[in-house]
Fold each of these.
Amino acid sequence: MIFDNQHEIQRLESIDELRNLGINPYPHFLRRDMNISKFRLKFNYIKDTEEKKAEGQLVGLAGRIKLIRDAGKAVFANIEDENGNLQIYFSNKTLDPEWFKIVKKYVEIGDIVYVRGYAFITKTGEFSMHVNELSLATKSISPLPEKYHGLVDVETRYRQRYLDMIMNPEVRADFKKRSVIISTIRRFFEEKGFLEVETPMLHPIAGGANAKPFVTFHNALGVERYLRIAPELYLKRLVVGGFEAVYEMNRNFRNEGMDLTHNPEFTSIEFYWAYHNYHDLMGITEDLFNVILEKLGMEKVINFDGMEIDFSKPFKRISYKKALVEIGGLAEDVVNDKDKILAKLRADGFEANEKLDLGHLQAELFDNYVESKLIHPTFVIDYPISISPLSRRSDTNPDVAERFELFIAGRELANGFNELNDPIDQYNRFKAQIDAKNAGDDEAHEMDEDYVKALGYGMPPVAGEGIGIDRLVMLLTDKKSIRDVVLFPAMRPLKTETKENEK
């Protein structure tokens, strides 16, 4: 039995007693007239009247009981809905005396009730409802955590998000903010002339990014399929097909570790803009941030994890190699020499894989010496070509990709580049990725011959970018863990959920 502790058993007994009294603890439908926030707004004027009440104007509300104060022949309680909290008052005079006894005995904290009454101001000056009618809308079985301690256990909060939201209204506010951010992004791109599209979640080839995929099996086709790690290659096929400005905001899946900034499924937006370059993308990204901050009513200087982050100035732009020297404090001769990089990494206690090429070793330097220092919005541009298998190669330097990543608060938030549209170069880069995989890189890109074939029909010059939505929400809500901005984050299984326990 799920509900087996003493308090739950008592409430189950109460449910049986209510049914025996002819009272349905789960009535089918009760219509409220408005939410609590609108009720407060509509009758706020009574504070300035002599009567301090709106006795002739009865309104029906509904909400969960969060607090009960029993004064014998009268009861004060607090109810809460999505939009607000309200004190209610009822007594053996405002309700039928027999019904009042039943309410006092069976209605408890956590129950959802329908109340009908009028607004009034108590002697202590609190805006309240004088209840003339009260019905049980939903009987709760599981008692809520004690009010003064609340729900603070992080593990429980993530596993039981519904309880987290009941006990912590600020959590609901954070997820409402997430929704506003997402809708603002959609409107922004639609107004710029971008078309929203949907591409497959099940891929025959795990492509579009360097990552480990989740593998599943399609029974009807008799083949393996991969949960998508990125929509990139499908979106660029659409550019080949004639769409010149497209975006998709959806889930990606990567079978990798979990930490403060990684969840196995995450939300991102990817957009592709024909006849534009990566400098244009950086410009539109700055515009997007300004629009979001304005929509949220936030200042241009925000706080995140004890850091002040300034959005009031143009975002800094710095080349990859220059960042290694100027921000990472590394000597130029080290940055450009594979053996010296290996020696530097080992000397400072970092892993150093001799099989990695120069570009991948420079990436190790960047991760260890630069990334955490990029606090204010910074575009790092012109990446090593070997770690950018889908990026266009620079015309002036064949070792450099026309690519950028946006870093804020020491974390990557966006990745964009001029897209490679040379099919032969793309084919050869895919082949190089296969060599990297054979050398031990589990995240190397797979060969996708159909995508190369698509490029063979001609893809116009195009720039594309991906922005991590979850990390963006973390930044704008000042949350340190991605689990705080994902409604139902991935969790390690409980012992009762493991297969070993089933045996």
Note: The chain has a mean pLDDT of 93.
Amino acid sequence: MGIQLLTERLKDQIAGVLGCWDRMLIFGTLPKICYAEGMTSYLYAKQVRIFDYPKFAEPFRDRLRENAEQLAAANGIKIQFLRKRNARKEDLVKEALAKRGEHPGLICILSAMEPCSTYQPWHDKATGKTFLRPDDGKCLHYYFYFIDEELGLCYVRVPTWLPCRLQIYFNGHHWLAAKLRRHNIAYKLMDNAFVEIADWNRSQQLANGLEVQRLHGKLDQFARTYCPIHRDFGVQYHWSVDQCEYATDVVFRRQADLAAIYDTLTRTAIHTVKPDNIATFLGRKLHPQFEGETGNRYNIRIEGTRIKHTMGPVSLKLYDKFSLILRIETTVNDLTFFKHYREVEHRDGTKETKWAPMQKTIYSLPPLRELLEAANRRYLEFLSTLEDPRNGRDKLDKLSQPVTREGRSYPGFNLFDSDDDALFQSLLRGEFNISGLQNKSLRRFLPDLSSGQVSRLLKRLRLHGLIKKVAHGYKYYVTTFGKDVITAGLKLRELVIIPQLAYGRVA
């Protein structure tokens, strides 16, 4: 028995479903000089004294300033210097767009004094060596805001001091909007969300088709335009993903239809989701050695309520947009959090395909999209068990009934029994959902039971359809029905019955 997704159950109320990249932050670094040892070697090769590094860097700073001034003059705009730290760049961009329109081209240039990475000359008296070491500094940064024909609204952040680490922003929904226009597919875009699309299926196919090679070419083009000094070093920028978001939007036809379920979804999920559930959504195991933070956060915003589940550098959010869109969004701040099968090159030059952390390069975006899409879908499946009240009534009744096999009766399960409660809490652990469970692994969480007692429990669970056995093995997995009914049952117990008995009046 499978979970009926809320998108299927409410299909008459839903205009469409779309998965798409959202906010993208790309970092650009120059391979030869992006680390202190590399810049040290470069200076030695050019016969530049290490302690003359500031004098060496000044001409590059001046050229970047001249380049910005030339671009401003060519486009008839003035560079705006931001004196206040809290100045909202987005408001200034909106103001400029309102005046010029949203046609392709440079919108505005903003500048600000901000922290930057740099190097400090250093002489080690112990070794007698002179070199550069990493340091934190502050320099003038330029923000070039423009509309690209393919990527939509973008900005390039250019520090004016070496090693000139670039930051480039664009939004996947704006990129998709440009693709829809080229394919003559009508749409209505509000902010960074589609509220109407003429062909949802075709749009999803286009959204899945981000061409990394083409994106690479665009990023190189931006670097040539806004940071041309990299040519002096004879290298191209290396592009890596700093932060990205992937959103799954369930678009409702009427605000009232989303409002009918949204409050229940958010308030229930914030209490129900545990750290191991978060790990499961993200396709991970929650190991005891995991040092990152995990948790839930519930926010009430002007736009509405939002819940956020975090695990280290990854977060999974649920919120509504314009009271029409139910958005599930996974945000990644470090791609190495995820692992996948890829080619790994060893120091000795040999290569092998193995399970390894994802690389931060932009060429990891296609496999990353699949992982984030799967995470959003797992969360949607979870929400679907919360939203449908029948999961907490009909299936809970089936759970409690005895099952007869070969003349022997096997009792049902009772959520008010402490032993059954401990069993169900264990079955929902993230590591079991990913890699399965065995008699031995389950006994770790049920220490008072013997191996024989756990074997009998496993048989009861199988006969009630809560777990299934892997063919030709000794592993079991919780079935879809099992996840559905256990989640609904625990929700009823923890969120309704126990609070009512604790705080309600007993007649």
Note: The first strand starts at residue 14 and ends at 29.
